[in-house]
Automatic annotation (TrEMBL):
It comes from the Bacteria. Pfam families: OCD_Mu_crystall. The lineage of its organism: Bacteria, Pseudomonadati, Pseudomonadota, Alphaproteobacteria, Hyphomicrobiales. This is Ornithine cyclodeaminase. The keyword NAD applies. Keywords: NAD. Belongs to the ornithine cyclodeaminase/mu-crystallin family.
Amino acid sequence: MSLPSPLAVVPFVSVENMMRLVLAIGVEEVLTALAAYIEEDFRRWDAFDKTPRVASHSLDGVIELMPTSDGRLYGFKYVNGHPKNTRDGKQTVTAFGVLSDVDSGYPILLSEMTILTALRTAATSAVAAKYLAPDNARVMAIIGNGAQSEFQALAFKALLGIDTLRLYDIDPAASRKCARNLAAKGFDITICPSCQEAVEGAGIITTVTADKQNATVLTDNMVGGGVHVNAIGGDCPGKTELHRDILLRSDIFVEFAPQTRIEGEIQQLAADHPVTELWQVMSGHREGRRSASQITLFDSVGFATEDFSALRYVRDQLMQTGLYDELDLLADPDEPRDLYGMLMRAAGPAL
Ligand SMILES: NC(=O)c1ccc[n+]([C@@H]2O[C@H](COP(=O)([O-])OP(=O)(O)OC[C@H]3O[C@@H](n4cnc5c(N)ncnc54)[C@H](O)[C@@H]3O)[C@@H](O)[C@H]2O)c1
């Protein structure tokens, strides 16, 4: 069989190449660069097709498709969320994604996105916190010390100067893993025996737990004035982390309200409860943090533009790093309408 033609080939970033790319550039450098891409795309919000992601729910999890386009490029991510998976040695969240050229509809990148999702989620949280967290915050509590947690810590270090971490997980082994992974990164780290103790003195509280139910990871008494809550783990119908009373005392910031009202912490509130979309703050239409005593809440669920931004970033690194494979993905007959002929010619003269 002949080699695939240039039109047949799509750059593919495997998990191995994603790891090599991130390590070559540096984790904090990648988080900082991703944050810039994500913010740039939030600032041109009107350019994007926006729709709540398409979710297929089952008893133990969800599989979602997250599409968007700016009219020039189209991107989508396939992502799952299965909190029970870690019991079987599998990830809670796995993902891959595609970036395409709108003009021809041809894919121009296929990439692993399990690692990229952790990076983009952390970068998005840190970008939001730049506008919402108290200026002097140096201490962050991280509740839930699983796959996403180290990425969150490093993004907040790189973008906000967080230097002290207070960790809590219902499974102490997860906290020990997180502390071990971050040991040489310049943090002062305390593993706490309870959530209540973890939030003490923290200017930022990140909740990043996985549980397929309405959990109350933070109770109302744990969140005092002036704190920024970065709530990551409540991202599905019937899956929340915060007590409703915290929401009622907070100014709430979301990615794309129609999606967050279905999936976020605010599913606990009336459908018209006031929220501010992040793009409004980033583009100066609405205020972020207004006072030292205000409680700000980023009700994060993850939105398609963040994945689009992340794929854009990865694509921009490909030529200089060469860290991709060429995937024979698109059938490319010599004559575009002779797809069948291409198939028959591949069989050779014997058939
Ligand atoms: N908002 C987003 O954009 C976004 C992106 C990625 C993942 N997520 C969500 O973030 C969450 C965490 O993802 P992950 O990949 O780190 O999962 P993970 O399973 O690797 O880790 C979750 C951790 O939470 C701990 N935990 C569960 N209940 C807890 C509780 N009540 N108190 C303290 N700790 C508790 C578990 O022991 C586990 O260590 C998931 O719910 C996932 O859906 C959101």
